[in-house]
Design a protein that fits this description.
The complex is a heterodimer of chains A (233) and B (379). Chain A has 233 residues and is mostly helical. Chain A contains 10 helices and 2 strands, in the order αααααββααααα. Chain A has a single domain, classed as Butyryl-CoA Dehydrogenase, subunit A, domain 3 (Up-down Bundle), CATH 1.20.140.10. Chain A is globular, with a radius of gyration of 19 Å. In chain B, helix 4 packs antiparallel against helix 5, helix 4 packs across helix 6 and helix 7 runs antiparallel to helix 8. The chains are: A mainly alpha (233), B alpha+beta (379). Chains A and B meet through helix 5, helix 6, helix 7, helix 9 and helix 10 of A and helix 1, helix 3, helix 7, helix 8 and helix 9 of B. Bound molecules: flavin-adenine dinucleotide.
C-alpha cells in the first residue's frame, strides 16, 4: 500500500460523504480516477491495496455510484466488487452489533441473549472471511503488477467466497434487527440491497464455481495444493 | 474486532526450498499403504514415521537448539505442518507434543523440565496428551475436580480425566488440576506434567464410533509425582491453559482434516469434470483458499507475539464447518455405494464418520461462537 494510504482513506470518507447526496461529480473532481495511474503519468500511483480500502469505504457510503468503474477497467470489476462487498458486509455487522446492544426486550439488550450472540458470531466469521479474501486478492494483484490475468485464480476464489457470504450476512443482519431493519428510514437496506445486487454482478456463484472448478480440475488433486502454495506464501 | 487487515505472512528464509525439500522427503518417507490414514491425518498414529520426521528436523522446529530444536521461525514451522497435512502424512503420534506441549514447556517450564522432555519431543520420540476434560467438565472446563495436594514427597493426584487423545501411547500428560483446596471455578488450578508410567495411573480405552481407539479415560489413584512436576506458576493454570488453547485453534489442521477427500474428488473428476462436480470443486477451492489466508494471517499475528484469540476462533469455526461439510457435500453429488472400495468412496466413508468430532474437539462450535461474540462486545 502506498505511504499516503491513511490520508487517502480520510479523503475518500470525506469526498464520498459529499457524493452521497451530490452524485459522482465530487469523486471525479477529487481525482479518484487517477488512483491507480502511476505517478510518472500524473496519477496517484496507488496499488490494489489502496483501491481495496477506498472501495470498501465506497461500498458503505456510496454503493450506488460507479466508483469502481471510475477507478479501474472492466477486467478489474470482479475484484473491485469483492472490495465493495467486504465494506458493505463490515457495515452490516457494525449496524447489527450497535442495534443488539441498544434494543432491549425482556428487560435486557438483545445482545445478551445467547441465540443472538451465536448468530452474530456466525455473521462475523463470514465478514472476516470476505475481508481476508479481499486483502489476499489485493496482495496477489500487487505482486503481479496489477495484471488481472495473473490473479485469475484469486479473483475467482474471492468473488465466489464473497458471493456465498451474502446470503448468511444479509439474512442474519435483518433477522437481528427485527422490523426496524425492514424500513426505508433505517440504514440497513443501504448495505444489504447492494449486497444482493453485487452477488449477481460480475459473475454469480455458478459462474465462478464452474470456472474455478474447471481450472482446478486441470491441475489435479495434488496440483491444486502445489499451485496454491506457489502463488502465495 | 473492527478494521480487520491481513497480518502479512512473511516467514524468513527460502520458503520455496523448504517446501521442495519436504515434498522430496515425503515422496521417499511417507507410508503409501492405506489411503484412509490420509484422512484426518493428525489423528493417524505412526511412531516410525514420527521418528523419521524428527530425525529429518521437522519436529520441534521452533525449539532452541540447546534442547534439540531447530531454532527456526514459527512461520517456517507453519509451512511444514501445512505441507504435512496437505499430503495426508500420519503425524498423530507427535502432533500434540510438537504443537502445544513442547512450546508450553519452553514458555512456562523449569530448566529441568526443558532438558528432560524437549529433546525427546523434537526427536519425534516423546509423545504427549492433553488432560483437560473430565466427566463433569467438558465445555465448562472450570468445573475441573481432579486434585493435586502438595505433600512433603511431592504432589498427590486423585481424580479422573476423559476423552484424552493418545493417552495410551503418550509418555506424558499435561494436566489441569485443582491444587488449592476449597478453590472454585478457574481459581486454584495448576498445570502438572505427569509421567504416565507413574504408579496409580490407569488408562482405559474408549472406542470411538469409527471403531478406533484414539481417546481414553485416565484414572489417578493417589498418584505421587515430584514437586518439579508443576509447570509454571502454582494457581495460574487457567491463564496458562487459555494461552495453550490459542496455539491449538488456528492452525491448518482446523481446515485441512478432510483435504484428502478434496484431492480424491478432483482426481476422480478428471480434467473434464461433470458440471455439478466442477461447481463443487470450485466452491470448496474458494473456501479452502480463503481459510488458508485467515489461518496464515492468524499464525503471523501469533508469531508477532500478539494474542489473536478471536481470529483463532474464527479460523476454527469456519474451518471446522468447511471440513465437516465437505464429505456431506461430496456425498450429495457423487454416485457410488457406501461399501465401494475405490479411494474416493473409502475416504468419503471415513470422513463422514469422523467429521462429527471436528466441531467438538478443541472446544465446541457453541463455545467458539461464544468467544467470537465476546470479541464483538456482546458478552
Ligand atoms: C475426538 C475428540 C478428541 C478429544 N480429545 C481430547 C483431549 O485430548 N483432551 C481433552 O482434555 N479433551 C478432549 N476432548 C474433549 C473435548 O474437549 C470435549 O468434548 C469438549 O470440550 C466438549 O465437552 P463435552 O463433550 O463434555 O460436551 P458438553 O460440554 O456436555 O456439551 C454438549 C453440547 O452442549 C453444548 N453446550 C455446552 N455448554 C453450553 C453453553 N453454556 N451454551 C451453549 N451450548 C452449550 C456444547 O457446545 C455441545 O454442543 C476430545 C473430544 C473429541 C470429540
Amino acid at each position: 500500500m502506498s505511504a499516503a494510504h491513511d490520508m487517502l482513506c480520510d479523503t475518500a470518507r470525506a469526498v464520498f460523504a459529499e457524493a452521497a447526496t451530490a452524485g459522482i461529480a465530487p469523486v471525479e473532481e477529487a481525482g479518484f480516477g487517477l488512483l491507480l495511474v502511476p505517478e510518472e503519468d500524473g496519477g496517484f500511483g496507488g496499488d490494489w491495496g489502496d483501491a481495496n480500502a477506498v472501495l470498501q469505504i465506497a461500498g458503505v457510503v456510496v454503493p450506488d455510484l460507479p466508483v469502481a468503474e471510475l477507478i479501474a477497467g472492466e477486467a478489474y470489476q470482479p475484484a473491485a466488487t469483492v472490495s465493495l462487498m467486504a465494506g458493505a458486509m463490515g457495515q452490516a455487522l457494525v449496524l447489527s452489533i450497535e442495534h443488539v446492544n441498544t434494543r432491549q426486550q425482556f428487560g435486557r439488550p438483545l445482545g445478551k441473549f445467547q441465540a443472538v450472540q451465536q448468530s452474530l458470531a456466525v455473521m462475523a466469521c463470514e465478514v472476516r472471511a470476505v475481508e481476508a479474501a479481499a486483502a489476499a486478492l489485493a496482495t496477489r494483484l500487487d505482486a503481479m503488477s496489477l495484471d488481472p490475468s495473473a490473479a485469475d485464480f484469486e479473483i475467482a476464489a474471492a468473488k465466489l467466497r464473497a458471493n456465498r457470504a451474502v446470503g448468511v450476512v444479509t439474512a442474519i443482519a435483518h433477522q437481528v434487527h427485527g422490523a426496524i431493519g425492514f424500513t426505508e428510514e433505517y440504514d440497513l437496506h443501504r448495505v444489504t440491497v447492494p449486497l444482493m445486487r453485487w452477488r449477481g454482478a460480475h459473475g454469480n456463484d455458478a459462474y465462478w464455481a464452474a470456472r474455478l472448478g474447471r481450472q482446478v480440475a486441470t491441475l489435479g488433486g495434488r496440483g491444486l495444493w502445489e499451485a496454491m502454495t506457489a502463488r502465495g506464501a | 474486532m473492527q478494521g480487520f487487515a491481513l497480518y502479512p505472512f512473511d516467514p524468513p528464509g527460502d520458503i520455496a526450498a523448504l517446501r521442495a525439500d519436504l515434498r522430496a522427503w515425503l515422496a521417499v518417507n511417507q507410508p503409501q499403504g492405506d489411503v484412509v490414514a490420509r484422512a484426518n491425518c493428525w489423528a493417524s498414529f505412526d511412531p516410525d514415521f514420527s521418528r523419521a520426521l524428527g530425525a529429518a528436523g521437522y519436529i520441534g522446529m521452533t525449539l532452541p537448539a540447546q534442547y534439540g530444536g531447530g531454532d527456526q521461525h514459527p512461520l517456517e514451522r507453519y509451512v511444514v505442518i501445512e505441507e504435512l497435512l496437505a499430503a495426508g502424512a500420519p503425524v498423530g503420534a507427535h502432533w500434540i507434543a510438537d504443537r502445544q506441549t513442547g512450546p508450553l514447556i519452553l514458555r512456562y517450564g523449569s530448566e529441568e523440565q526443558r532438558q528432560r522432555y524437549l529433546p525427546g519431543i523434537a526427536a519425534g520420540e516423546l509423545y504427549a496428551c492433553i488432560g483437560l476434560s473430565e466427566p463433569g467438565a467438558g465445555s465448562d472446563l472450570a468445573a475441573v475436580r481432579t486434585t493435586a495436594r502438595e505433600t512433603a514427597e511431592g504432589w498427590r493426584i486423585n481424580g479422573q480425566k476423559i476423552w484424552t487423545t493418545g493417552a495410551h501411547f503418550s509418555h506424558i500428560m499435561l494436566a489441569l488440576v485443582r491444587t488449592e483446596e476449597g478453590s472454585e471455578r478457574n481459581a486454584g488450578l495448576s498445570q502438572l506434567l505427569i509421567d504416565l508410567d507413574t504408579p496409580g495411573i490407569t488408562i482405559r480405552p474408549i472406542i470411538d464410533m469409527a471403531g478406533h481407539h484414539d481417546f481414553n479415560e485416565v484414572f489417578f489413584d493417589d498418584v505421587l509425582v515430584p514437586h518439579g512436576a508443576l509447570v509454571g506458576e502454582r494457581g495460574q493454570g487457567w491463564k496458562q491453559v487459555t494461552a495453550e488453547l490459542g496455539l491449538e485453534r488456528s492452525g491448518p489442521e482446523r481446515y485441512l482434516s478432510s483435504h484428502a477427500l478434496l484431492v480424491a474428488l478432483i482426481d476422480a473428476a478428471g480434467a473434464e469434470p461433470d458440471p455439478a462436480i466442477a461447481a463443487l470443486i470450485g466452491e470448496l477451492t474458494a473456501e479452502m483458499w480463503t481459510l488458508r489466508q485467515l489461518s496464515m494471517s492468524t499464525a503471523a499475528k501469533l508469531a508477532a507475539g500478539e494474542d489473536p484469540m478471536v481470529e483463532a476462533s474464527v479460523v476454527k469455526e469456519l474451518g471446522n464447518a468447511f471440513e465437516q461439510d465437505m464429505p456431506r457435500r461430496v456425498q450429495a453429488i457423487v454416485t457410488g455405494g457406501w461399501d465401494d472400495e475405490d479411494d474416493l468412496a473409502k475416504l468419503l466413508r471415513a470422513l463422514l464418520i469422523a467429521s462429527p468430532s471436528f466441531s467438538l474437539r478443541g472446544g465446541t462450535r457453541e463455545v467458539i461462537r461464544g468467544i467470537i461474540a465476546r470479541g464483538l462486545g456482546l458478552r
